[in-house]
Design brief:
39% of the residues lie in helices and 29% in strands. It has 149 residues and is α+β, with helices and mostly antiparallel strands. A seven-stranded antiparallel sheet has the order 2-1-5-6-7-4-3, with helices on both faces.
Length: 149
């Protein structure tokens, strides 16, 4: 079994979330970054509340700091729908964030207009693959700002 296949299994995803929570690094994100030819970003663990179930859901995500803002990107590899974590935070923007063992409560908001355009340009400079993802989907890829509560 390849490392990628193992990490994409339920047990592998649990392991990756645990690594992110404790070390701030995601093996899965590192593999995807290497395959796409860009430098892996540090990762955070984002906890949202399921919009239907109310259950807590966690996602390990690369994060960026741009203009003093903490950002995550809902690219989902250019798939036609937003990731579940984006849909969840749109329903309830109160989230919990872990960055290298430090947890804090935050409010998530999807950027828009000129703010998004400026952030998107900087994100593309750092991770050119996002331009490809945007080109293969009709939805606008969400750029989410996490503001400490």
């Amino acid at each position: 079994m390849s490392l990628l296949k193992m990490l994409m299994s339920p047990a592998g995803l649990r392991l990756d979330r645990a690594l992110v929570r404790w070390t701030g690094h995601s093996l899965l994100n590192r593999i995807f970054a290497r395959q796409a030819g860009f430098e892996a970003q540090p990762a955070l663990l984002l906890e949202t509340r399921g919009r239907k179930s109310g259950a807590r859901r966690q996602a390990a995500l690369p994060y960026f700091r741009i203009d003093g803002k903490l950002l995550v990107v809902g690219s989902k590899g250019g798939m036609p729908t937003d990731p579940a974590w984006v849909t969840n935070l749109r329903a309830d923007p109160a989230v919990r964030v872990w960055i290298s063992r430090r947890a804090f409560d935050a409010r998530a908001r999807v950027s828009g207009g000129e703010e998004r355009a400026a952030l998107w340009a900087e994100l593309l400079a750092r991770v050119p693959t996002y331009a490809h993802y945007q080109s293969i989907t009709t939805r606008e890829i969400p750029v989410v700002i996490l503001e400490p509560a």
